[in-house]
Amino acid sequence: MTSGWPELPGQAEVVVIGGGVMGSSIAFHLAEAGVRDVVVVEKDELGSGSTCKAAGGVRAQFSDELNIRLGARSLELFRRFPQRPGQEIDLHQVGYLFLLSSDDDVTAFERNVDLQNSLGVPSRMVTAEEARRMSPLIETDGLLAAAFSPDDGHCTPESVVLGYATAARRFGARFCTRTAVRSIVGTGSDSFRVETGRGSVSTPTVVCAAGAWSREIGAMVGVDLPVSPLRRQVMFTEPLPELHDQVTPFTIDFDSTFYFHREGPGLLFGMSDPDETPGFKLDVSDAWLPRLTEAIGRRAPRLLDVGVRTGWAGLYEVTPDHNALIGSAGRFFYATGFSGHGFLQGPAVGEVVRDLVLGREPFVDVSALDASRFAAGQARPELNCV
Ligand SMILES: Cc1cc2nc3c(=O)[nH]c(=O)nc-3n(C[C@H](O)[C@H](O)[C@H](O)COP(=O)(O)OP(=O)(O)OC[C@H]3O[C@@H](n4cnc5c(N)ncnc54)[C@H](O)[C@@H]3O)c2cc1C
């Protein structure tokens, strides 16, 4: 995607830093609500950070009530995306299937399912055999049970960014790409000058949606945003003819974190690497292959015979408790640190940040996600992470 606004304006009502799913969703929701001069500054191209590297998974199966609510609300908004903001996003609500092979995980997921059900999410526990019928590529050795929710699924991240950015522009928002924020200067009690490589813009309100790069943006205004970049890789297989008509849920071996979902005639698959260390590493590494091969061999051995077409590395934006940072310090707002589930929360968080900026009450109270929780000893762990 290329820049539609080569010139950075001198003034804006709101400056959003970052043009990923969060920045574009926040810009759309603010512009749609009538905020006239929303300016998004993006150092590269729209979606070029973590968003377009994402596996596209969307779900409401979490352990934390806040994440369940944000995920479920986002699913609703993804479903209506072709009408509002008006973009086809290739949404496949094929369900998420978490495969569980320890008693502790089964107990934890049973608890999660109860909580999800109490919030209207139609998840349920299924037997290992039922899981295999749903996702025939899997082996059930060592599998005790699984958790499934039919509303979950996956869609296309670049289409989501495109949809929000196109509609936000229709409401008057400007997207200035190739525009890196270098510093933020406080110019009075509630005003800022955001200085970029292409000039500066004055504004009463800044929103940081800078993903893995948020810590340095927070530091510019003296706000500690504890977000670390962590490399994650995905791969895409050659076509699997036997998948032809098969509806395949987004399948996750929770123990190893190996996961896969349909991507055209083949599969997308990935896994976390416990040996990975924080850093802005975007080169593809082979270090994860022995562990990945072992996990595939155990849970979906058929995939070992399928060729790999391509793959890439992207960055998770990780916080100490694997939960987001959403809040503000004066008129500096932030929505970041989604720790691997930011794509799926983009629509709901766009609504929440719109309401925080406009002084309205959001549909869900996110005050527990304020970045000050760590200093206050109130970390809020999300346990259902992959
Ligand atoms: C391999 C992989 C798989 C994933 N799978 C999923 C998934 O299935 N489901 C899910 O929900 N999430 C997934 N994620 C996580 C998801 O991609 C992120 O949580 C989400 O994209 C975060 O969106 P964002 O807008 O906050 O950040 P980003 O998309 O990274 O956007 C931040 C933007 O800020 C810009 N920026 C940074 N610094 C500056 C600056 N100084 N000036 C101007 N601009 C700046 C960056 O260039 C970037 O474009 C995955 C991530 C990876 C890497």
TrEMBL record:
GO terms for molecular function: oxidoreductase activity. Signal peptide: none annotated. Keywords: Oxidoreductase. GO terms for cellular component: cytoplasm. The keyword Metal-binding does not apply. Residues 14-356 form the FAD dependent oxidoreductase domain. The keyword Manganese does not apply. It holds the Pfam family DAO. PANTHER family: FAD-DEPENDENT OXIDOREDUCTASE DOMAIN-CONTAINING PROTEIN 1, SARCOSINE DEHYDROGENASE-RELATED. This is Sarcosine oxidase subunit beta. It comes from Lentzea fradiae.
